[in-house]
Amino acid sequence: MATKGFKDFFCAVLVGFLLMVNHTLSLSQSNPSVENRSNEAPQQIPAFPEQTRVPSVQTQSNYSVEVITDELEYPWGLDFLPDGRMIVSQKPGNIRIVNVDGKVSDPIDGVPSVRYQGSGGMFDIKLAPDFNTSRRVFWTYVTTVDGDAMNCVTSGILSQDESSLDKVNVIYQIGPTQGGRFHFGSRMIFDEEGRLYVTFGDRFRAGRGEVQQLNSALGKVIRINQDGSAAEGNPFAERENALPEIWSIGHRNPQGLAFDPVTNVLWLSDHGPRAGDEINVIRGGANYGWPEISYGTEYNGGPVNGTGLTQKENMEQPVYYYDPVVAPSGMTFYSGDLIPEWKNNLFVAMLSGMHIARLVIDNSTGRVINEEQILTEEGQRFRYIVQGPDEALYALTDHATGRLYRISN
Question: Which element (helix H / strand E) includes 76?
Fold first, then answer.
């Protein structure tokens, strides 16, 4: 009788397991991933099930898409003036103001010239948290020193007539990198205390060897005060031969930063090589692995760093990764109420992917559980997306006739 009871129990468990597998397969088949291309690195195995190619989702609410202007030249960053107009940085090296009706101003005077070569130029722009009283503007760009390129973080005071930036001052810069014409990173974001986080890339092969070194800002996120000094409480401040401004290390070419409005956790997007684009949750002092680990391959198809490792002790895993590449750039969490089903979703501007990704996140686990691609029909390389004061989403495209979109209900 005991043997029969065990057999019955075993059969019941087996049947239950098979039903669960069948249900999971049915869900997967009816709700496949938005990505249907072949993997560049099919031999690499995700560290957990939700790390890549999650099931697709589709917005059920109606929403509208409007092109405010297509008269921007390779726009890169955007912030909102107190009256709702937008201040926009353009990669060739100028800053303009865009009215809500799409009128684009002349370039603002007083902006230092940029090194517009390779992937370098002018990058992000942010208004100071106290802009209403200080009129202070921050932006990042690449300049040339002795023929080599270096990142700069700069601030200036916007004149009352908005025609010029005065008292321009470089508050932070990286030493020039010989031959480093690519991978500058350079997205910025302020936290609630007014501290500034800035991303820097690895300068392609020119600076890859410095990404894991604490005496270099290449491949790092830094956290600084508005005068450029290291913010108090940074994780490596007491470490010998370490830059006190470093917040996290092991990044390749990070171009997106966003704070989760629910948890206040910082998220980051990073370009992989041939595959291996990443979405990361950033913790102070953490190491995100590049170039020691990656879910991509080198451009010649070989293993990254000669090893092809995807996991290593004391190195963080991406919350989500892409294979093949989509080139994630700017991103934002949606906290508005115009489209309720988007609440607390993460939106990521994709360059080579030519769409905006909507990522649905399980707040209990912090993992991505669904993905949607929107604006695929526009055929645009999306550089940046941000929520406006009117709760609409605003997106920039990376073209000589760059567009500014408004996405609303």
Answer: strand 75-80
Please provide the DSSP assignment of 244-279 as one string.
TTEEEE--SSEEEEEE-TTT--EEEEE--SBS-EEE
The three-state secondary structure class of 47 is coil
Cα–Cα distance between 264 and 250 in angstroms, integer? Answer: 22
Count Cβ atoms below 10 Å from residue 18 Cβ, excluding itself: 10
Beta bridge partners of 367: 362
DSSP secondary structure letters along 308-367: --S--TT-PPPSEEESS---EEEEEE---SSSGGGTT-EEEEETTTTEEEEEEEETTTTE
- Which residues in the chain show pLDDT less than 70? 1-30
Give the pLDDT score at 205.
Answer: 85
Note whether 291 and 204 are within 8 A (CB). Answer: no
SS3 13: helix
Catalytically annotated residues: 183
Q: Please answer whether residues 55 and 28 qualify as being in contact, where contact means their C-beta atoms are separated by less than 8 angstroms.
A: yes
DSSP-derived secondary structure for 271-303: --SBS-EEEEEE-TT-B--TTTS-SSB-TTSSB
Report the distance separating Cα 43 and Cα 37, nearest Å. Answer: 15
**Alpha-carbon distance values, 21 to 27, 53, 57, 197 (Å):** 10, 18, 21, 44
Q: What is the CATH number of domain 49-408?
A: 2.120.10.30
Query: In the chain, how long is the greatest CA-to-CA distance?
Result: 92
Question: What per-residue confidence (pLDDT) applies to 383?
Answer: 98
What is the token pair recorded at 308? 């092809």
Q: How far apart are CA 254 and CA 47, in angstroms?
A: 21
Residue 395 pairs in a beta bridge with 385, 405
Per-residue model confidence (pLDDT) at position 30 = 58
The tokens of 29 are what? 């088949």
Q: Show me where the domains of the chain are located.
A: 49-408
> Quick count: other Cβ atoms within 10 Å of Cβ 309?
16
Collapsed DSSP state (helix, strand, coil) of residue 4: helix
User: Which among 287, 189, 202, 303 is positioned nearest to 253, based on CA atoms?
Assistant: 202
At 24 the pLDDT is: 37
